[in-house]
Amino acid sequence: MIISNVAISGVAIAGVWRLHGDSAVVVGILTAAFTSVSTMTTAYLSIKAVSNTAKTIALGDTGRRSTETVETVSGAPGV
């Protein structure tokens, strides 16, 4: 993830540098780079979270779950 984000940033910086400040195109390049980095980071973190959850379930790690009873809306004890 870090390598891809650095690569995207490097290409964006090179593109901005080669255009010598043409503002309309620079805004487009920076917007595309920001969107790409954000999407890549979000995808990585989402996949990592799902993977960790699946691993926890597969290993049967239930130690962190609460054992308290749940109350219904009416206030009566639930199961």
Notes on the structure:
This protein is mostly helical and 79 residues long. It contains two helices and no strands. α1 (2-19) runs antiparallel to α2 (23-59). The chain is elongated, with a radius of gyration of 23 Å.
Any descriptors?
79 residues, mainly alpha, 70% helix, 0% strand
Task: Report a brief summary of the structure.
The protein is mainly α and about 80 residues long. The protein has 2 helices and no strands.
Topology pattern, helix = H, strand = E: HH
Shape: elongated
Mean pLDDT over all positions: 83
Strand content: under 5%
| Percentage of residues in helical conformation | 55-70%
Helix run count: 2
- Termini separation (Å)? 44 Å
Helix and strand layout, with pairings?
Layout: H1 2-19, H2 23-59
Helix pairs in contact: 1-2
